[in-house]
Amino acid sequence: MDEIFAAVNRVFAFVVPVADFLWDFPTNFSWWNRIPIIGNLTFAVLLLVGSGIYFTVRTGFIQVTRFKDGIRAIMKQKSASTGISPRAAFFLSSAMRVGPGNIVGVTGAIAVGGPGALFWMWVSAFFGMATAYVEAVLAQTFKEKKGQEYVGGLPFYGKRILGNRAFVGVALSFLFITYAFFCLPAQAFNVFSSVGQMAGIVTGHTYETTSGLYYAIGILLIVGTAFVAFGGIRKVTRVTDVCVPVMAVLYCGLVILMILFNLNRLPDFFISVFGGAFRPEALFGGVMGTVLAQGVKRGLMSNEAGQGTITMSAAAAEAEHPCEQGCVQSVGVFLDTLVICTLTGFVVVMAQTWNGMDSAAWAAASADSFSLFLNSLSVLIPGTVLDGAVTFLICLCYGLFAYTTLLGMLSFAEIAANRISRKKGFINGVRAVGAFVFIPFGVLCVLAGLELSNLWYISDLGNILIVFANLPLLYLGARYVFQATSHYKRKDGTPFTGAVIGRQCSCWPDETAAAQEKSTEGGREDNLDS
């Protein structure tokens, strides 16, 4: 078995330098590093932040002026005859956004960049809300109908924006599916980590990965995921509709409780965050560019604004106007970064476990981000009676974060696959590969006590390639978003149709187009390859 895992690691070894080069470009060149502050930021981060600023200005700060619209759409009790409700789409997107990175990613950013990284995380999230709005509006505008569901997202609006070329949609679908599948083993690993820790807390016994407990977890994970995934998007949303609110409320409630127990530490939190944003401590590198880069990168990687990876859920909704779902997705970024990531930051910064450590000791203590977070949490728990209960509940949240992310990856891969073929056999094949190949592979890694570091780089590579594919499409399609936004803001009672943006939209036809479609096609589904 060890030889097989070693061989897999060697096969994917070539991915590591490629992923690192693309993510770090051009900071891997000395001439760029010599530029003050900016020289610490990669091209991808600058592009994502710059796009957020541009879209914020061009949409008239839509994330502020129409924030209430997003909240109203989420709170509205609405059943969907086709697709899913805006609320279900919000929870489905949150299943992807609110993942283990909200704990380990934020903790890691603070460990490297210091408390000030949290401030720059807020800044990137604010502008990222506008980017999320733009890509969600495009996903809604160019979505397509499949039976009683809507399918759409990056592969679909990419195809339409680039001259309705089928090969564009197929290429983007293949890229996303590959990215999603290679993220599954890591999420399976996170589920195992959380459940194993919970079992240890309950029994007081440390379980080896070769124990029967881990085999049972593996079987339940594979069977349970397959059962949900083969039920289609609506079954997935029934699970996320329950899990996302529970895990978000539970996590937020626990952290807020810890804050209330430690109100005397609150002034130090704000001093550390705002002071560290511009005057970073030497322990964390002492360079403003480092703290800025850590905050911006982690904020964008957590909420995924601009990556196109959340657009499938936006397209699946039955919205009254494309911009309505854009506002909903903007709220999703707010929840992910400005609420949940911030609460993680409260725990790590208020605990200040780095006090009294030198740089070498701090580097060793922060090597495992989840352990660092739990250690920080233990500092804030009053007394010792609640230690086990609070840690157990946090591990439960962490496990739910990972499991809902896993379900989101599978469902979004299924939606993307519809751009290639809508045949039932093909879609079931995509479900089967994810549920019965990649998740079991992650399970085997845990049971063997191995973590295939090279394999995890596949997801990093896929992520950066999706960023570079999606952002140019957002600029090319931005005029449609701006036209739709102008129509949305007028609130003149006229329905949104493809005529508003001057493009034919199969799910937003005007009266003439609808009459023609009814007479010529008799209500048949759109032909994917037309």
Structural class: mainly alpha
Order of helices and strands: HHHHHHHHHEEHHHHHHHHHHHHHH
Largest sheet: 2 strands, antiparallel
Q: Which strand order spans the largest sheet, edge to edge or round the barrel?
A: 1-2
Poorly predicted spans: 512-530
Report mean pLDDT, rounded to a whole number. Answer: 84
How many DSSP-defined strands? 2
Q: Judging from the principal axes of the Cα atoms, what is the shape?
A: globular
Query: Distance between termini?
Result: 48 Å
> Strand fraction band?
under 5%
Helical percent range? over 70%
Number of contiguous helices: 23
Rg, alpha carbons = 23 Å
Quick structural summary:
The chain is an all-alpha fold and 530 residues long. It is built from 23 helices and two strands.
How would you describe this structure to a colleague?
The protein is mostly helical and 530 residues long. It has a domain at 2-175 and 230-381 and 454-496. 72% of the residues lie in helices and 1% in strands. A two-stranded antiparallel ribbon has the order 1-2. Helix 4 (43-58) packs across helix 9. The longest helix has 38 residues, at 166-203. The N and C termini lie far apart (48 Å).
From the structure above, extract its key features:
single chain; 530 residues; mainly alpha; two-stranded antiparallel ribbon; 23 helices; 72% helix; disordered C terminus
